[in-house]
Amino acid sequence: MSRIFVTGRVPEVALEKLRAAHEVDAWTGPESISREELLTRVAGADAVVSLLTERIDAELLDVAGPQLKVIANVAVGYDNIDVPACTDRGVIATNTPGVLTEATADIALGLILSVTRRLGEGERLIRSGQPWKWGMFFLLGSSLHGKTLGIIGMGSIGQATARRAKAFGMEIVYQSRSALAAEVVAELGARRVDLDELLATSDVISLHCPYGPATHHLIGAEQLAAMKNSAYLINTARGPIIDEAAVATALQEGHIAGAGLDVFENEPDVHLRLLELDNVALVPHLGSATIETRTAMATLAADNALAVLGNEPPLTPINAR
Ligand code: DGY
């Protein structure tokens, strides 16, 4: 029987799977586990099931001990994990691709609609109790039909977002390390372009690339200046892919028309100037936040941990031992 530490609250079904075969310790506090508590509780664990709020670095791996076999992240993004440090210590790291694709694409579309059709502004107006009535020029937004969606990072979530946007009558261009398979191109009618062309021609830009050194502040002042004044920026990937201060300035100065953000550079903090702006839709990292999706993510993470502890190959590894 191995020892598993779960760094935060996860759906019970995943805990039951783990408990059926192993000794499980789980952080169940309402707040994220403190670093100090985390370092105490991982000591001696054979497997750690981690949430994206916990930093898994060399210090933690060393404190856990040489018996540690697997870090099973309950997220597709793994910028919270020092993967080379895991590999150096023979620890397998896993993530949860696939199971949150549709939910995250839903949120991307939700943000696109929210900001282009000014849904948040409308709701805030009604809730404020101020008088309003229908008017020809009242709270006019921008149509999606016939507009161009530029997708940066055309993995499964980018493609799922493109599929939804196509149903809204949008044209799709994308920038990605690799070209799409011919059948996906045929389905989406998506055209691969370079970043400059994407920035200059898109009416809405949606980010779906992973975060890492290569994508840190991928969208900064220069890129925002290259976008159309009428364009909107959507981020459901990771906060630091955009320079939040530069986005606030671009929104304030009218270099772009609006933004829809689900993720932030310093979560849970949000750049103060963004909070004052009406042309930005803000939601608190809800991309995968459905009961079904979180259950599937936690179950996949549990299956990954169980596989490695049972000397089987993990289902969705990030590195090789
Ligand atoms: C992920 O899995 O990376 C998401 O950001 C979680 O919501």
Topology:
Blueprint: E1 3-6, H1 12-21, E2 23-26, H2 35-42, E3 47-50, H3 58-64, E4 70-73, H4 83-88, E5 92-94, H5 101-116, H6 119-128, E6 148-152, H7 156-167, E7 171-175, H8 182-188, E8 191-192, H9 195-201, E9 204-207, H10 221-226, E10 232-235, H11 244-252, E11 258-261, H12 272-275, E12 280-282, H13 291-309
Parallel strand pairs: 1-2, 1-3, 3-4, 4-5, 6-7, 6-9, 7-8, 9-10, 10-11, 11-12
Helix pairs in contact: 1-13, 5-7
Report on this model:
The chain is of the alpha/beta class and 321 residues long. The protein folds into 2 domains: 3-98 and 291-309, NAD(P)-binding Rossmann-like Domain (Rossmann fold, 3-Layer(aba) Sandwich); 101-282, NAD(P)-binding Rossmann-like Domain (Rossmann fold, 3-Layer(aba) Sandwich). Helix content is 38%, strand content 14%. The protein has 13 helices and 12 strands. The protein has helices at residues 12-21, 35-42, 58-64, 83-88, 101-116, 119-128, 156-167, 182-188, 195-201, 221-226, 244-252, 272-275, 291-309; strands at 3-6, 23-26, 47-50, 70-73, 92-94, 148-152, 171-175, 191-192, 204-207, 232-235, 258-261, 280-282. The strands form 2 sheets. Strands 8-7-6-9-10-11-12 form a 7-stranded parallel sheet, with helices on both faces. Helix 1 (12-21) packs parallel to helix 13 (291-309). It is globular. The protein starts with a strand and ends in a 12-residue tail after the last helix. The relative contact order is 0.15. The mean pLDDT is 97. The site of (2R)-2,3-dihydroxypropanoic acid has 8 residues, from loops. (2R)-2,3-dihydroxypropanoic acid (DGY) binds at residues 52, 75-77, 100, 285, 287-288.
